[in-house]
Amino acid sequence: MISFVLHQGREKSLLRRHPWIFSKAVSHAQDSKTGQPADMDKVKSGTLCKVVSSDGKFLCYAHWSPSSQIVLRAISFNEEDRIDYDFVKERLRAAIARRAPLVARGDHGIRLVAAEGDFMPGLIVDRFNNVICAALSSAGMEALYEHIFRALHELEPDCYLYERSDAKSRRKENLPLRAGLVDPEDLSRAYNLRDGQGNALKDSRQISRVRRIDDGEGGSEFIELDEAVPDTLFVQERGLVHIPIDVKNGHKTGGYLDQRQSRYHTYELCRTFKTMSENCKKGPSVLNCFSYTGGFGLLALKGGAGAVYNVDVSEHALNAAREGVVENHLDPGRCKFIKKDVFEYLREQVAAGTKFDIVILDPPKFIENRSNLNSGCRGYQDINRLGMQLVRPGGRLLTFSCSGLMTEELFQKIIADAALEAKVEAQIVTTLRQDIDHLVSLPCPETFYLKGFEILINWPHGRSPGLRLQLPY
Ligand code: SAH
After folding, report:
1. Which residue lies with its CA nearest to atom 23 of ligand 1?
2. What's residue 210's pLDDT?
3. Residue 470: how many CA atoms within 13 Å on its side-chain side?
4. Global confidence as pTM
């Protein structure tokens, strides 16, 4: 095995069990046994290595990924571990077992493995009903491909396995883009698994072949479209509604499970408004910006919203959102689906003087890396200023940031600046965050990526609050 030796003093974050090692921290490579120097450039991407401190102490096992900024990602801090099939299966088994309470809560869409949060850097696994969708984003997880899918098949034998390893970020790791059904038979061949009678372990389901995306020159190749997984899955949330999920062509693994808790919060908020506010007898009006397949809107309607406006640039996502309303037997007359750039829509509505009881802002990541931190922050401030201007006094802004580089403290400051610009008095009613199956790694704060606030918009600057503006919390 190859050992990577770190520069003096660069072991600190690993001693704190942060799993990422950047190229600048690495001094050189050597053979673990003989201590002979090794050529770093010859170590293949995805190779399992040891990482040692400058004085030769074992720090962790990690996978090598020379083309990424993070050249090594730790998989174990225990020298006794063997990173084999049993190791992977145990990690996945433990991760899945932790989720049992969510099933009991009425959720059929669950993040089973949350990458660093479950000690598997670069691996996301979501289960939507009987479809498991995995996304592998690091060279290390790519190297463990067969272990991962074989373990998932053994742990969840009744589920179809789907792969969505087609995020552009894989290019940074020099990995091909791939998406489609995973055939457990392929894996059993790879492992030569046999049952008691010597037959290859095979699932009885008929799985038509896989759709693959080649990374060639950006070309995509369709081999055969699989029938086993429907184009839209409706996945129960909190026992209340069924959210549309598009595993094949949707974003990431098909849906955003991280917002489940905040969608439920929206449901409760709408109920409170409808039952306790004099102004909202017909149910609150809700503007759902960056709606994707309309999850927030469905829970708002279920909670008694009088009108929901879903705004997104994606026609595909809005169509799924339309289907969702029908599937849940909710009143399509109470929903609007608006295909538009949110910035543009907000500006138009501000100019028109429109007001809503609840405005939701759940934008995509505006901050990709440190170099666009400032412009990203500006983007957040702009939509929040506009969003606040659209909230009726006494109403709420539910605002989110899923940028890992945005801390909760910084986000609060941005919202405070936005309120100043919007000239409204505002208060934080509660903080919101990613749901509990998106576990946060203690040493890796980047895994606490989704931050949000429920903001109570009070009276405009320069005016006194009137009693009629008061709505209950
Ligand atoms: N709130 C959603 C998830 C939002 S994901 C949920 O709970 O499921 C972000 C969405 O923003 C995507 O659907 C994307 O199509 C949309 N989007 C990105 N930029 C946009 C823009 N400028 N205007 C409108 N929609 C945008």
Report:
1. 341
2. 44
3. 5
4. 0.90
